[in-house]
Specification:
- The protein has two domains: 2-336, ABC transporter transmembrane region fold (Up-down Bundle), CATH 1.20.1560.10; 348-566, Rossmann fold.
- Helices cover 59% and strands 13% of the residues.
- Strands 3, 4, 5, 6, 7, 8, 9, 12, 13 and 14 form a ten-stranded mixed β-sheet that branches. A two-stranded antiparallel sheet has the order 1-2.
- A hairpin with a 2-residue loop joins strand 4 and strand 5.
- The chain has helices spanning 2-7, 12-49, 52-99, 104-109, 118-157, 175-195, 198-221, 223-228, 232-270, 274-284, 290-307, 309-312, 314-336, 396-404, 437-442, 452-461, 477-480, 483-497, 513-524, 563-566; strands at residues 162-165, 168-171, 348-352, 356-366, 369-373, 377-381, 385-390, 410-417, 422-425, 435-436, 474-475, 501-505, 531-535, 547-553.
- The protein is an alpha/beta fold.
Length: 581
């Protein structure tokens, strides 16, 4: 998944060249280490002969080889760190691209646990995965190249090894190679046996960390309401429960890591003398000089460390695999999250004729049942103002989501006017991006699409003229403005964009008298030709609405989907128009 996603991203070529560069540097470094290994024999032989002149010459050779290796190590470090950055750029860019597909983030948020804390998956998990993947990949490549190179060295050094038993001679060609393989295999098997549970323990810890982070962010976002309700003690208790879960998961991970340390550290200490012990029979048999013994021991250490890569990195591999599973499952959910498990029938969305919205046999499914629009066929024409009244117990917000295309589960057919923008105003506080006030009013369109004076006129029309001097100021406007002012700003956005259609989810009922009067006045003048569909119950007698529709609760035995809708092919909801939200 990592390789395919990275190479298929816009930075795929850069990642490929970085990988080629790393491979070449690793091969060059391995050659330098082979030369350094060969240097052991003449250097230690010079010591054993007390040849001071040759000793100085071998020191000069050492510094030359070490200097070249230093340059190669620095180059490998730069290439490795750059690879991490590019991999993260490719992976996170891919995840964001899928996440920001029309409706995808909303569907994922309603898909269960897999949709929880997407910020954690795209930020922390993706970063951690890229760093671990680069480190482990480079380490594995280096170990493989070292193993191939030094296996040949060991084979040559111990090609004629033999031992005597009961007067018979037994030859073991490449004795030191087999000793290194057996030693590393024993350590790998023990590491896997002792640390096999670390993958699940790491995954559990990351999940609990994400829950704690989300709880802290939520408290910070709602600190005003918590303080006014004197709910600090209750929120503290909730956060402490998440913290306790994190600590419990971490303690289980600590136990697993501690048990694994018995194996990794034990083999690490034995490795200090293992190369000498393995090469000693050749030395005492007179087949190796003292310099040859040190050369064989160094070669064994290199080969054995390459073979022990799995042992040394098992805890990191477990961490990497747990992170990979979290990111891979999240990406899979991003691509495939388009169904509700308990509902097979879907609403059909289609582009219709300009100047009208058509709703036929609409049923909206949810976990609490099914709501039905009583009027079997509805045509809303341009400039018409329609009110949809919901009976007690009906889910009016779910109807709003169905009309917008966010919630396609149910039955029926919705035709929306082709190439005509629809602005959606959800219930509650509107979304205001952190941007300049001019950009907030134009959102999600470009500021350049409107006349510079139109922004001030829209603000003044909704009695927000005090904000005109701040049009080019970037702030968290949801923190700077009151709830009523935020709604006024959302309506000023509608006045500025003057869309042909507006769909409102029970927002007018929450407005105070002055705000409601101003907005109604804009609908009667600036937005005279804008079609309005309002879902709610508090405006039944308002003269603005010329027609009323009714949302009813279906009987508990009702099966979602009528014959004509149930047999229709699944539809893909159309993207929100540029002026929509």
């Amino acid at each position: 998944m990592m390789v395919r996603t990275g190479l298929g991203s816009p930075v795929g070529k850069k990642i490929s060249w970085l990988m080629v560069g790393i491979f070449l540097v690793v091969v060059a470094t391995t050659y330098g280490q082979i030369r350094l290994n060969r240097w052991n024999k003449p250097f230690y032989d010079a010591l054993s002969r007390r040849d001071f002149r040759d000793f100085l010459y071998q020191l000069a050779v050492f510094f030359l080889i070490a200097g070249i290796l230093l340059v190669l190590n620095v180059a490998q470090k730069w290439l490795g760190e750059t690879l991490k950055v590019r991999m993260r750029e490719g992976l996170v860019g891919d995840l964001i691209e899928h996440w920001m597909q029309p409706r995808r983030a909303f569907w994922l948020a309603n898909a269960g646990p897999i949709g929880a804390n997407p910020d954690q998956r795209m930020h922390e998990d993706a970063r951690h995965l890229c760093e671990l993947s680069a480190d482990l990949g480079i380490g594995l490549l280096q170990s493989l190249v070292l193993l191939l190179a030094f296996t040949g060295v060991l084979w040559v050094l111990s090609s004629d090894f033999s031992f005597h038993v009961a007067g018979r001679i037994f030859a073991i060609p490449g004795f030191m190679v087999w000793a290194a393989v057996i030693y590393a295999a024993a350590g790998s098997l023990m590491s896997y046996w002792v640390g096999g549970t670390l993958i699940n323990r790491n995954a559990e810890r990351y999940a609990r960390e994400a829950d704690l982070r989300f709880a802290l962010v939520r408290v910070n976002e709602h600190v005003d309401g918590i303080s006014l309700a004197a709910g600090e003690a209750d929120e503290s208790r909730r956060v402490e429960l998440h913290l306790a879960a994190v600590l419990a998961a971490t303690r289980r991970l600590v136990t697993g890591l501690t048990n694994l340390t018995w194996v990794t550290s034990g083999f690490g200490w034995v490795t200090l003398v293992a190369p000498i012990l393995v090469a000693a029979p050749l030395y005492f048999a007179g087949k190796l000089s003292f310099g040859g013994l040190m050369m064989a021991a160094a070669a064994f250490t290199q080969a054995q460390s390459a073979l022990r890569w799995f042992v040394d990195n098992f805890s990191v591999i477990a961490d990497w695999r747990a992170t990979l599973l979290r990111v891979a499952s999240f990406r899979r959910a991003l691509i495939t999250t388009n169904v509700v498990p308990h509902v097979e029938s879907r609403i059909i969305y289609a582009d219709g004729e300009p100047g009208r919205i058509v709703i036929e046999n609409l049923e909206v499914a949810s976990s609490t049942g099914c709501d039905v629009l009583r009027e079997s066929r509805v045509i809303v024409r341009a400039g018409e103002r329609v009110l949809i009244l919901g009976e007690p117990g009906t889910n009016k917000t779910q109807l709003f989501r169905a009309l917008t295309g966010l919630w396609p589960w149910g039955a029926g057919r919705i035709e929306r006017p082709k190439d005509e923008a629809i602005v959606y105003i959800p219930r509650g506080t509107p979304y205001l991006p952190r941007a300049s006030l001019r950009e907030v009013l134009a959102y999600p369109m470009e500021v350049e699409n409107f006349h510079p004076d139109a922004f001030a006129q829209a603000l003044t029309r909704l009695a927000l003229d005090r904000l005109v001097p701040a049009l080019d100021t970037t702030l968290r406007w949801d923190r700077e403005l009151s709830a009523d002012e935020q709604l006024d700003l959302a309506f000023a956005r509608v006045v500025l964009q003057a869309p042909p259609w507006i769909l409102i989810d029970d927002t007018l009922r929450s407005l105070d008298g002055d705000t409601l009067e101003r907005f109604m006045d804009t609908l009667a003048h600036e937005l005279l030709h804008t079609g309005v569909i309002h879902i709610g119950g508090g405006q039944a007698r308002n003269p603005l609405f010329t027609r009323t529709l009714h949302l009813a609760k279906a009987p508990p035995t009702h099966t979602v989907g009528r014959d004509d809708a149930a047999t229709a092919p699944p539809a893909t909801p159309q993207p929100v128009s540029p002026s929509g939200r």
